[in-house]
Structure formats: structure tokens, C-alpha cells
Design brief:
Elements: H1 10-37, E1 41-43, H2 45-58, H3 63-75, H4 86-89, H5 91-106, H6 109-115, H7 123-129, H8 132-147, H9 150-172, E2 194-195, H10 204-209, E3 223-224, H11 225-235, E4 239-241, E5 249-250, H12 259-267, H13 269-289, H14 296-307, H15 316-328, H16 330-346, H17 353-367, H18 373-382, E6 385-386
Helix pairs in contact: 1-2, 1-3, 1-9, 3-6, 5-9, 8-9, 13-14, 13-16, 13-18, 15-16, 16-17, 17-18
């Protein structure tokens, strides 16, 4: 019994361990995150129950608690109330104490009650899956039974996998370091364009830009393995995708700004800002800065990042550098001003549709009169925006 019932060499035990931890990651990203927390898809009851059972065994997490804490994170992102923001608490604390921060938030009954709506509320959840210590103890017995003494190590890896990768890396690095496709109203970043190791959760900026999307990849070169599994389940009739992030439709022949334009700009505001950064900020910054800077490529890249960022996400040094750039170039100052004006249109949540329409019409007319070709071209393309169905 030293080697367990399977009597496998260590390297095969290692491969099986990695396979089991991958199933855990898939259960978290597909079931807990995309299906339960954000309602981006629905799963066949058999699939849902398998994921609930597996998570009970390998993590001891309670569905309603995980969902409530995650929804609360979105609702209070990057504020003092955020249960795990490295911008507030520091990257070291979130990376290495992410599981403790999760448990602190999950211990608040009022938080769970308010944010756990729609999660499983059946006999199994109350009488079985809520008894977390029973599940992980049962997993330990199973691992030792099949793998012998190595089963203790297998169990230990299973127990630390989610606390480190999900609670630490995604919640920590995913709000601290990486690249950003979209100017989401927080500090979320994409850790890697290849979402394999953490089930696609590496594409965290994409997720915060479109929280209710079942698909986390946004660029053709990004890969979300969680989405691949969802597509397989859909093909087998075991899942139904409810929402994915869609790109706006652009009618190049449409020249008038109407209510469809307003709806499209508001609906696709993340794409609008991303397109503005690529089509206006990037070419104008390169043209302006390369007139006077010897090492213009490096300086232009820095300027693009600063000009495309929200001021509230910049530290004091970055704000000072941005102001220096704006003071040196009236053209870049104009480009930055129009970006902030455009963003301000959809931030007027209490404004009537007529006022929004007039604001967007004025923005386009004035942008096209600036004499900045990239800004003029972007404004004309903005007139053709249509809501994606």
C-alpha cells in the first residue's frame, strides 16, 4: 500500500496531479466564474453538479460564498472595500495572502446575502457542499488510497493550487502587471495572451472590460482555453452561451449621428476607446514626438500609454510626465482633451438621450474641425457605428 492501489511511478503521478489541478481550474473559470458569478452561460445540471462535487473535494469552496465575494470585487473594484486589490493592499499581500483575504470577505454574512443571488440553494448545497472540511478530508483519503504516500503530496498540491493561482496570481498580478487592451474603469491587466495555465483567467483586463462575456479573449492572437471547453460543451449540448462581447458594426456610408450611433458608442465604449488609442493617439504621438526626440520610439510608446490611460490610474510621477507631454504639444493636448470629452459622454448616466445625442453630434463636428487628420478620420468612422446584435 506504500505506492497505493495504482502503484504508479512518480512521473505518472505528477502528470495525473497536473491533470486534476487543470480540471479544478476549469471548474473555477467555467462553472464558478463565467456561469455562476456572471451568468454568461448556462450548464447542463449534470455538468454543474460534477463541477460542484469536484470543487468541494479539491478546494472546499462554497459556491454562494465564492460568487458573492467575486461580485463584490467587481462592485467595489480598486476601492478600500475591494476584498483583494493590490492597488489598495499592495501586491505582496494579495499574492501571498489572497486566500486569507477571501476568507475574511466570505465570513461577512451581509455580503454573502446581498451578492449570492441565483446560486445553488438545494439540499446538497446546505447539507453536503457547505461542509468544506469533509470534502477535502475525503480527497485526502482518495489520494492516499490510489497513490500511497505520494498521495499526501498530490493532495497538498491540490489544496494550494487555487489559493495561489486564483486568489494570488489572478487577483494580484491581474490588477498590477501586464498589458491592457481596453481602458476598463480599474487597473485590471492581461497577464498573458495565452490563457492556458489558469483557464483563460490570464486575460483579466478583457474580463473587466466585458464582465458578462463567456469568452475572455479579444484579439485574434489571444487564446482562452476556458472558451475552448465551453465551445466543446456547447457542441455536445451540455452548455448554452448567453453572452459574449461583440464588436461594433461600422457602416462606412452612414454620415449622420443618430440614436443608433449613441447606443453603439455607449454599448461598445471599451472598443471605442481602444480604437481611439490605436487610430488617433498612436499615430499622432509618433508624429509629434519624433519631430523633436532622438529616441522617439521609446518616448512615443511611453506617451501613448499615458495619453490612453485614465488619470485616476496614474501615480504622481506619471501624471507629471503626462502634463509635461501635454505642455510640449498642443496637438497631443487636443487629442487628449477629445478623448476625455468622448469618455465623458457615456459617463453621464443621468443625462437624457437627447442630450447624449447632441453631445455626440457636437463632439464629431468639433473633432472634424481640429485640423488633426487622425482625429477627423476617427470622428467620421464614429458616425457609422451601429449596435451589434
Amino acid at each position: 500500500m506504500i505506492n497505493g492501489l495504482l502503484d504508479l511511478p512518480w512521473w505518472q503521478v505528477l502528470l495525473i496531479t497536473l491533470a486534476m489541478t487543470h480540471v479544478t481550474i476549469v471548474a473555477v473559470t467555467v462553472f464558478l466564474h463565467r456561469a455562476q458569478a456572471h451568468r454568461a452561460l448556462t450548464l447542463n445540471p449534470l455538468v454543474s453538479h460534477f463541477f460542484r462535487l469536484w470543487l468541494w473535494l479539491t478546494t472546499g469552496m462554497v459556491t454562494r460564498e465564492w460568487v458573492a465575494v467575486h461580485r463584490y470585487h467587481h462592485a467595489r473594484c480598486e476601492t478600500e472595500e475591494d476584498p483583494h486589490s493590490p492597488q489598495v493592499l499592495g501586491i505582496r499581500k494579495v499574492m501571498w495572502e489572497g486566500a486569507e483575504l477571501y476568507r475574511e470577505a466570505a465570513a461577512k454574512p451581509e455580503l454573502i446575502e446581498r451578492f449570492s443571488h441565483g446560486t445553488p440553494d438545494d439540499w446538497l448545497e446546505h447539507k453536503v457542499y457547505s461542509r468544506r472540511s469533509l470534502g477535502i478530508a475525503l480527497m485526502l483519503l482518495v489520494d492516499v488510497l490510489f497513490f500511497g504516500l505520494l498521495g499526501v503530496a498530490v493532495w497538498a498540491v491540490q489544496m494550494i493550487w487555487i489559493p495561489f493561482w486564483a486568489a494570488g496570481v489572478v487577483n494580484g498580478l491581474g490588477h498590477y502587471w501586464g498589458y491592457r487592451n481596453f481602458a476598463s474603469p480599474d487597473a485590471a491587466t492581461n497577464i498573458s495572451p495565452w490563457g492556458v495555465l489558469i483557464g483563460g483567467e490570464e486575460l483579466h483586463n478583457n474580463h473587466h472590460a466585458f464582465p458578462s462575456s463567456a469568452k475572455l479573449s479579444a484579439k485574434w492572437w489571444e487564446f482562452d482555453i476556458g472558451w475552448m471547453y465551453i465551445r466543446i460543451l456547447s457542441f455536445l449540448g451540455l452548455a448554452r452561451v448567453r453572452r459574449i462581447a461583440l464588436k461594433p458594426l461600422i457602416d462606412s456610408g452612414k454620415m449622420n449621428v443618430d440614436m443608433d450611433t449613441v447606443k453603439a458608442v455607449v454599448m461598445h465604449r471599451m472598443h471605442v476607446l481602444a480604437n481611439y488609442a490605436r487610430e488617433v493617439v498612436q499615430p499622432v504621438a509618433e508624429e509629434e514626438i519624433c519631430r523633436s526626440e532622438v529616441h522617439c520610439r521609446r518616448v512615443a510608446r511611453q506617451a501613448r500609454r499615458l495619453l490612453a490611460a485614465d488619470r485616476k490610474h496614474l501615480d504622481q510621477a506619471a501624471r507629471a510626465r503626462l502634463q509635461e507631454i501635454l505642455d510640449r504639444s498642443q496637438v497631443l493636448a487636443t487629442v487628449h482633451q477629445y478623448r476625455e470629452r468622448l469618455q465623458g459622454i457615456w459617463e453621464r448616466t443621468a443625462t437624457s438621450q437627447e442630450v447624449l445625442l447632441q453631445s455626440l453630434q457636437d463632439w464629431c463636428s468639433e473633432a472634424e474641425a481640429t485640423g488633426i487628420k487622425a482625429l477627423e478620420d476617427f470622428s467620421r468612422s464614429l458616425r457609422g457605428y451601429q449596435p451589434a446584435i
